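Postdoc handover notes: sequence design on the structure in folder B. Input C-alpha cells:
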C-alpha cells in the first residue's frame, strides 16, 4: 500500500499551488519594478532658485545630472548666497524626482505602498 498526498505539493490544491502562484506574482512584480526603474532613470526633473540664477536637473534615480549657475549670479555674490541657491535648487529637484517616483511606482503597483527605503 502506498501513501499519496503527503507533504507539500503532493495532492491537489494545497499550499504548493498557492506558493507557486505567489512566486510567479513576485517575479512579475520584480520585472515591473526593474522596467520602471529603467524608465525613471531616463526621465528628468528640473528646479531653479534665485530667480533662475541656479538650475538643477535630477533624474528618476535621484542623480544630479546638471547644475547650472548663471554668470550674473557670480558677479558680486558671496559664497554663502550661492551655496544657499544651489541647495535650494537641488533640494527642490530631488523633491520633484521623489514625487515622480512615487507617482510612477504607485501606478505600476496599483496603489500598493512600497516598503520604506526601497528607493
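Designed sequence:
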Amino acid at each position: 500500500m502506498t501513501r499519496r498526498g503527503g507533504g507539500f505539493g503532493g495532492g491537489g490544491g494545497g499550499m504548493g499551488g498557492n506558493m507557486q502562484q505567489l512566486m510567479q506574482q513576485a517575479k512579475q512584480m520584480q520585472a515591473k519594478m526593474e522596467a520602471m526603474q529603467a524608465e525613471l532613470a531616463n526621465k528628468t526633473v528640473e528646479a531653479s532658485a534665485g530667480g533662475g540664477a541656479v538650475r538643477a536637473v535630477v533624474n528618476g534615480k535621484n542623480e544630479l545630472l546638471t547644475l547650472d549657475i548663471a554668470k550674473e549670479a557670480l558677479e558680486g555674490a558671496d559664497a554663502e548666497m550661492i551655496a544657499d541657491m544651489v541647495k535650494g535648487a537641488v533640494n527642490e529637484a530631488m523633491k520633484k524626482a521623489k514625487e515622480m517616483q512615487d507617482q510612477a511606482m504607485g501606478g505600476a503597483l496599483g496603489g500598493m505602498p512600497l516598503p520604506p527605503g526601497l528607493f
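Context for whoever picks this up: The mean pLDDT is 82. Don't rerun without checking with the PI first.
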